[in-house]
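Observation: inputs received (chain + phosphoric acid mono(formamide)ester).
Thought: call the complex predictor directly.
Action: predict_structure
Action Input:
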Amino acid sequence: MVTQAAPAEERSRRHLLDVAGLDWRSLQKLLASAGEMQQLLDAPAGGSDALRGVGVTTLFYEPSTRTRISFEAAAAALGARVTTFSVATSSVGKGESLIDTVRTLEALRTQVIVLRHERAGAPWLAARHFGGSIVNAGDGWHAHPTQALLDLSVLSRHLGDSGGSLAGRRIAIVGDLLHSRVVRSNLHTLTTAGATVVLTGPASLTTGFTEHAASFRGAPGSVQLVASIDEALHNADAVMALRIQRERLTPGEIDSLEAYRAAWGLTSARLAALAPRALVLHPGPMNEGVEIDPDVADGPRSLVLEQVRAGIPMRMAVLQQVVSGARA
Ligand code: CP
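Observation:
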């Protein structure tokens, strides 16, 4: 079912900067739209020309495989003109600023910029200086909206009720919370969908999350921070391992990768003992043998590749939404 949004509401969707502030109705619309996009992908034509003539540029200041490729596949499936901006070979290397870069892209007929940046808040800065739409593809430790949306689509499909709600479901998220934009965005979507989210990780990597968990009081779901992985996994319907972000770790935050695996890794023995029916997720890229063992990542309860596949229809839904918002 395609629902009509009021013009003002549509205009407010010109960008997708964050999932914070999206209510359950907005999330349900995106889930429904992603379902329609999957039908388009599965049909013989494999897409549509809904964004024909629209210039979409992926502007990634940090490495990516899943997010960049799936955004480009999504834009192509909707008939857009897709440009991959190579930061390494661009005038960024000559000192061109983010603001000048987005203005330049606008002059070169880009209407949508999909932006990944190492600085939290960069997409908001870009949005103030760009006449088209900005989609946040990950900013620093702050937010990764489309990862959270695709994770929600996968979890709702497996664990949701007929409307996709996760009320009564318990989702454990384990590991490097401190550096994770994925967990910060997932907390919004999962609690808005009604889930109980149980967070755990080494104390050095959960700094600030007691207060962060408390900020979700009043949400349909809830957030708990617990000190032990045993407690987090108990009765979990799903468990998501977070990547140890070696590039962001400061010395002393973990003793060693081996010690981390022993204490916090998703191993088949640990899952069999503590969460024998839990579905397993990881946003990727994985450090196999650290936060998740290869046999778990490739095992029968793993949704890791389903998460990757879900990226294309969800990002089609997001691109369609921001272009509609810009046209409203
Ligand atoms: N999950 C995620 O953002 O992966 P990439 O860094 O490969 O895009």
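Thought: report the result.
Final Answer: The chain has two domains: 7-144+311-327, 145-307. Residues 64-67, 138, 147, 283-285 surround phosphoric acid mono(formamide)ester (CB under 6 Å).
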